[in-house]
Amino acid sequence: MKILTITCWSHKIKYHLFSGEERTLLASGMIERVGLGGSFIRQMVPGREPFQRETGDNDHKSAMAIIIATLADPKHGVITHSSEISAVGHRVAHGGEQFRHSVQLDEPVLDSIRKLQYLAPMHLAPNIAGIKSAMLHLPAIPHVAVFDTAFHSSMPECAYIYPLPYEWYENHGVRRYGFHGPSHLYLSRRAAAQLGKPATACNLITIHLDRGVSLCAIKNGLSVDTSMGMTPLEGAVMETRCGDIDPGIQVYMMNVMGLSAKELEQVLNNKSGILGIAGRQLERRHYLRAALAGDTLCALALKIETYRLRKYIGSFLAITGPLDAIVFSAGSGDLEWAVREMTLDGLGGLGIRLDQDRNRAIRSPQDELEITGTGSLIRTFVIPSNEELVIADDVAAIHSGTGC
């Protein structure tokens, strides 16, 4: 069977096509500038040169049609007809408390997802647009929703209930949900394989590094805490998101600057984090290069980023108990060694030591390597995340009737 996975953002759609029980990657790609004009598609097929072409002005509906047509293109595609696609898996940012595992999509399920948009309006709206478009163009096959929040549904109440009026949780769903679930699940599975233990016997701290950043405390294979909260805004320092701050700052700045709630939300989500400190938005590798070259504000941003990661590792160690490993995703690959080195610096007292040479030898986002130092009581790995493979596995299980 061939499984197509789809991740939709407001202005970008990412896709992967897998084949067979081994989930062989046939093609991957993305269409960018959806809804902005000047859209273009870029498709990568193993063993071929990347293919790119302009696609004009696209909304999610027309962009999805272009993706399907490109996969079946006689020259650049990998299938002869869209009917070869057996099922589609959609990454969905938020499942609330209702969706604790992946589910096959139908109108009632889609309607339930629509009702959760208040929990993640920036993410669920494009997710829904992508689902509707794909179901329109591929109506005869199963479509499955795979939720970013589902992996964290095993958290105990003491981890997910905020110290706020309890009726806020009961009436409005205010609680910690966590995100990047497929990534943390994949990292934990690969780490278990490296450790030679069942995933259910592993205690881990996994660190997802991308534009969004999150950590997960995993005990006996289950998520017991995570850094992101009700929204992806809480937690570590990110590219444009602030992460953890004193909530009193928000009220203070609204009063001082006369900001509306919407204006403040824009600042916290899109003008803070590394961008806010550095004063300009840089691709991650350029930010790291500037920091290591001595740019004062980029260097400060890097110190803050890694200091916060180190604090989370320390607090999660107290939750997981004896730890088997710390797992970093590969991030951007180039220069990420500095993030890992600075994050773990000073943790020797907790039994965590890094092999500096092995760590600095990693350059590619595709490298998977153990970077544990001599005498370390806790192993450390760098593992490229593969959320799409987790999505495809869930789709296959549901399609075959063995999934939830």
Say how many strands there are.
Answer: 14
Separation of the first and last Cα atoms: 19 Å
User: What order do the helices and strands follow?
Assistant: EEEEEHEEHHEHHHEEEHHHHHEHHEEH
Shape: globular
Strand neighbour order, sheet with most strands: 5-4-3-2-1-6-8-7
Q: Do you know the CATH topology of the largest domain?
A: Nucleotidyltransferase, domain 5
Main beta sheet: 8 strands, mixed
- Mean of residue pLDDT? 95
Number of helices: 14
Describe the structure.
This protein is of the alpha/beta class. It has helices spanning 60-71, 107-114, 121-137, 157-160, 166-172, 181-195, 247-257, 261-270, 273-278, 284-292, 296-320, 336-344, 356-361, 387-400, and strands spanning 2-8, 12-19, 24-32, 39-44, 51-56, 85-92, 103-104, 143-147, 204-209, 213-219, 222-226, 325-329, 369-370, 379-383. It has 2 domains: 2-147, ATPase, nucleotide binding domain (Nucleotidyltransferase, domain 5, 2-Layer Sandwich); 193-387, Nucleotidyltransferase, domain 5, CATH 3.30.420.40. The protein has 14 helices and 14 strands. Strands 5-4-3-2-1-6-8-7 form an 8-stranded mixed β-sheet, with helices on both faces. A 6-stranded mixed β-sheet has the order 11-10-9-12-14-13, sandwiched between helices. Helix 1 crosses helix 3, helix 10 packs across helix 11 (296-320) and helix 11 (296-320) crosses helix 12 (336-344). The radius of gyration is 21 Å and the shape is globular. The two termini are 19 Å apart. The model has no long low-confidence stretch (mean pLDDT 95).
